[in-house]
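Hey,

Quick one before I head out. I ran the complex with adenosine-5'-triphosphate overnight. Inputs first:
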Amino acid sequence: MIRIERLKKNYGAITALDGIDLHVPAGELFAYLGPNGAGKTTTIRILTGLTRRSAGDAWLNGFHIEKEGLKAKKRFGLVMQSINLDQELTVSENLDIHGRLFGMSTSERRRKIDQMLAYVDLIDRKKSLVKQLSGGMKRRLTIARAMVHSPEILFLDEPTVGLDAAIRRRIWALIKEIQKKGTTIFLTTHYIEEAEFLADRVAFLDKGRIVVIDKPRSLMARTGTWAIDQMDKGNMKTVYFRTRQEADAFVTGQKESYTLRRVNLEDSFLSLTGKKVKC
Ligand code: ATP
């Protein structure tokens, strides 16, 4: 599990994290949601030892991220936003290097590489050069690589950014599968549907602070159940309702056109922060 206490990060005059407190229990799929610059990547970079904290503490499965850095590092796998594979090496060579870095024996690496490639449906591309793979395949390969050393925690920083809707859904299915096998997953995203579909709990992050943490359904219920979007003096206005009847009553007799729809997490974020997550 992940425990974070009063975590702060300053980059010169910029406050990227302004006192984060968080506990993600083992086996949870936790989504960290916020607009560009909210501090999502900074949190992951600190937890994974890529950036030093300015203040506060954090532990991964009980190991302090800096004071017990080596032990903490063995606990997690990391999938970054950018695809940082070696394009000139084959699929299995990329995973093999990773296994070596984690001190895995040759036989252990062979077994785990085959298992992970089968798992992400790339076993028949084992000998292909990475540069010959599609974007979606490369993303699946980065997830396989992060899982080669059997980590208990998987950090996914915007795992589906830049992928089309069909491939994104395939990656979602894979993430769910990984969770089912018992892995704790910490996911950052600014795709609302991704958090809605995948997450057990969601944190809304804004300007380096957590605004709220809750289950996606509970967050949406705080806002309402139905939403009506309507143009008002040239601006889109959204009104929220607890029941369909209330929404119907609101539009009865109105001449302006409107859209009636279900409330989503974007609405919740907007009503709590006054901002949109999507950019
Ligand atoms: P995005 O959705 O765009 O990835 P994010 O929520 O991951 O955004 P961060 O990348 O964590 O946000 O950035 C948080 C803040 O810290 C931003 O104001 C950003 O400009 C700043 N920041 C991040 N990295 C650095 C750095 N190396 N040097 C200076 N400022 C930085």
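The pocket of adenosine-5'-triphosphate is lined by residues 11, 14, 16, 34, 36-42, 190 (CB under 6 Å).

Talk tomorrow,
K.
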